[in-house]
Amino acid sequence: DAKTTQPNSMESNEEEPVHLPCNHSTISGTDYIHWYRQLPSQGPEYVIHGLTSNVNNRMASLAIAEDRKSSTLILHRATLRDAAVYYCILRYPYGGATNKLIFGTGTLLAVQP
Amino acid sequence: NAGVTQTPKFRVLKTGQSMTLLCAQDMNHEYMYWYRQDPGMGLRLIHYSVGEGTTAKGEVPDGYNVSRLKKQNFLLGLESAAPSQTSVYFCASSDPTGGGRMNTEAFFGQGTRLTVV
Questions:
Q1: A16 touches chain B (CB under 8 A)
Q2: Contact: A99, B31; criterion CB under 8 Å
Q3: Are B82 and B15 in contact (CB under 8 A)?
Q4: Residue whose C-alpha is closest to residue A85's, from A49, A25, A41
Q5: Which residues of A touch B104 (CB under 8 A)?
Q6: Do A87 and B42 touch (CB under 8 A)?
Q7: Sign of CA dihedral A28, A32, A33, A37
Q8: How large is the average pLDDT for residues A10-26?
Q9: What distance in Å separates the CA atoms of residue A25 and residue A38, rounded to the nearest whole number?
């Protein structure tokens, strides 16, 4: 399984944008880049995913480097509720044993009021 | 729509006791997963299933067994609990087939906090 590297922790101020980086230099051509987050005392929840192009949804934006060796999750206006551990995961999109989600240690985001 | 439900939410076991954790999903997903999360660490995959009647080992399968007799249920068993199995256990489900967001999103339960003394 291709691995990802994320900073252990980051801090942000409320209502400011947050850029969470992820390096994945061994990504294969078929791997999708997924982001999940885990709020305190909860199970992980899906945030966003993409393959090559930048993606936007109601929660966040995902910016993918042209060579796909890195990506950045962007929270446009951080709120206190965004304080969580954010996981960047590479996932083969089709069926079979390789479809499993393998988590790293993630980035702990602290949001200051 | 309940999503993924884990039973029980909390449990304390004595060393050597056995127990079964139940995971139920109502989204008709093919794939189901069991993870454990130790304090300050990410989730580690224990076992997973790609369909009814099939199971496979993940990263840390030792000391656990699983069964997927029905598509909607995935059971995780501890035959002889050890203090090293004290952890929070998460179940998840997903379906890699189909289109749109449901193609790849995994849904997680709220977790089972297990303490082995």
A1: no
A2: yes
A3: yes
A4: A41
A5: 32, 34, 49, 91, 93
A6: yes
A7: negative
A8: 95
A9: 24
- Rounded distance between C-alpha atoms, residue B73 and residue A25, angstroms: 37
**pLDDT(B101) > 50:** no
User: Which residues does A98 contact at the CB level (< 8 Å), separation at least 6?
Assistant: A1, A92
Rg of chain B taking only CA atoms, in angstroms = 14
The least confident of A18-22, A80-84, A92-96, B65-69 is A92-96
What's the order of all strands across the beta sheet hosting B73-78? B4-7, B19-25, B73-78, B65-67
> Do the chains contact at A100 and B33, CB–CB below 8 Å?
yes
The model's pLDDT over A55-101, given as tens digits with 9 standing for 90+, comes to 999 889 999 999 999 999 999 999 999 999 999 998 876 656 556 78
Name every chain A residue with its beta carbon within 8 A of the beta carbon of B44: 103
Give residue A99's pLDDT.
Answer: 66
How far, CA to CA in Å, does B43 sit from each of A15, A30, A33, A85, B46?
Answer: 29, 23, 17, 11, 9
Mean pLDDT of B1-22: 94
B46's tokens: 């224990």
For the record, the structure tokens of B117 come out as 């003394």
* Residue type, position B24, single letter: A
Is residue B27 within 8 Å of B95, Cβ to Cβ?
yes
Distance (Å) from the alpha carbon of B88 to chain A's nearest alpha carbon: 10
Q: What is the pLDDT of residue B84?
A: 96
